[in-house]
Amino acid sequence: MKNNPYDTPIHPEPMPMVRIYGTHREMGRQIGESRRESVRRSVDNARKLLADAYEELELTWDGAQIQARKYLPFAQERYPQYVEEMIGIAEGANLPFEEISVLNAMEAVTMDALHLISCTSMAVNDAHTADGHILAAHNEDWIPEDEDDVYIVHARPDNEPPFLAMNYGGLLPNVGFNAYGIAQLIDSVHPEDSRIGIPRLVVSRAVLAAKNPSDAIKRAVVSHRAAGYNHLIAHDSGEIYSVEVSARRFDVLYAMDGYMAHANHYLSPHMQEIEYEPEQLIPSRVQYHRAMRLLRKTDKHTIKTLQAIQKDHVDFPNSICNHAIDGPELDREKTINALVIDLTAREMHIAWGNPCQNQYHTFHLDE
C-alpha cells in the first residue's frame, strides 16, 4: 500500500501456515522445526524484554526459568499432552525446554507486570449476520517485536479434533477454532488472586480441543489454574459466551441478544471485586464500549463489517486497531494481527499486522 500514515509494517504476503499432525510431541516438534527462526526470535525477544525491564521486575532470564519451573507440575498433572507439545517445540527448535516454558508462562513469571490491555474480541450469531453464519473476530495486541513471527497452525492431532489457529513464536496455539465448531478468542484480564498453578496458555490450549460449549467452559475453569483470561467461546449453533476467569473465581456471561464483545477488563460484578488496579484499564473500557456500539449499529453483519470495526482508530493510539508502540517498555504494544472467523464455513480471514494497513487473507480448515 502506498499510503501508510501510521508508519506500521506492511505485509503484502499471507502469513506462513504450518501443517502439523500426529502425537502432541510430534506436532510440537513440527512447529519447532518449521518455524525454528521464529521460535528462537521469540525467546530472544522475551529475554530482551526482561533485561530492559529489570529495574521494574528485578527478574533475570535465569530467574524466569526457575519461576516457570514451579508451574510445570500442575500442567503436567492435568494436561501432560500439552507439556509434550512444548517439549516438542523445544526439540524442533534446538532450544532448552526451560526457555519454551518461560514463553508459555510469561504473564505468570512476570507477576502480571506486562501492562498490555488492548486486545479486543467480538462475536455475532446467525440472527445478526447477512448469510446466517456465526462470526467471531479478534485483534491480537502484543509487543511489536513478535509481529514478524506470526503464523497459522493447521493441526490434525491423533486424538483430538483438527483445528486452525493463529500463533506466534514458541507459544502453544490457542486462538482459533476446531472441527467440532468451537471457536476461542482470549483477552488478558487482571485479577488479584494469581497463584502458582496451570499456566493460562496451557488452559487455553485445552479449550481449543473442546467438543461442545459446556466442555469448553469446563476446560476454561479447570481447577488449580494459575490465573485466567477472558475466553470468548462461540459455537456453530450460535451459542456465544464470555468466560471471565481468575485463579479462584469465574463467571459465565451469555450473549442473550446475539452480540458479544470483550476487551481486557472484567464485565461481571463478581469478577470486578478482585480486579487489580481497575483505574489502569480505562482504555480497555473505551474499546469495549466502542466495539459494542459499532456491533449494534449494523443489524446484519458480514466478514467485512467486522473487519471495519477491527480497523477503528477512536481513542488512538490505544484504539481497537492499536498503535501504542511508544512509552515504557512493559506498556509497548500494537495490533500484530486481526482475524475474523467464519465458524459456519470453517475459515479464518486474517490480516498480518495492523488491519488498517494490511489486507486480509483466507485460510480454511477443510483443505
Characterise the protein shown here:
- With 367 residues, the chain is of the alpha+beta class.
- It has two domains: 17-109, Arc Repressor Mutant, subunit A (Orthogonal Bundle); 120-364, Penicillin V Acylase, Chain A (4-Layer Sandwich).
- Helices cover 32% and strands 23% of the residues.
- The longest helix is centred in the N-terminal third of the chain and has 18 residues, at 61-78.
- The protein starts with 16 loop residues before the first strand and ends with a strand.
- 53% of the residues are buried.
- The model has no long low-confidence stretch (mean pLDDT 95).
Features:
single chain; 367 residues; alpha+beta; Arc Repressor Mutant, subunit A; Penicillin V Acylase, Chain A; 8-stranded mixed beta sheet; 6-stranded antiparallel beta sheet; 12 helices; 14 strands
Give a concise summary.
The chain has 367 residues and is of the alpha+beta class.
Order of helices and strands: EHHHHHHHEEEEEEHHEEEEHHHEEE
Number of domains: 2
Number of strands: 14
User: Strand order across the biggest sheet?
Assistant: 1-4-5-6-7-8-9-10
**Which class of the largest domain in CATH terms?**
Alpha Beta
Structural class: alpha+beta
How are the secondary structure elements laid out?
Elements: E1 17-22, H1 24-34, H2 36-52, H3 54-57, H4 61-78, H5 80-93, H6 97-103, H7 106-109, E2 120-124, E3 135-142, E4 150-157, E5 163-168, E6 175-178, E7 182-188, H8 200-207, H9 213-220, E8 229-235, E9 240-245, E10 250-254, E11 259-262, H10 269-272, H11 282-297, H12 303-310, E12 334-342, E13 347-352, E14 360-364
Parallel strand pairs: 1-4
Antiparallel strand pairs: 2-3, 2-11, 3-12, 4-5, 5-6, 6-7, 7-8, 8-9, 9-10, 12-13, 13-14
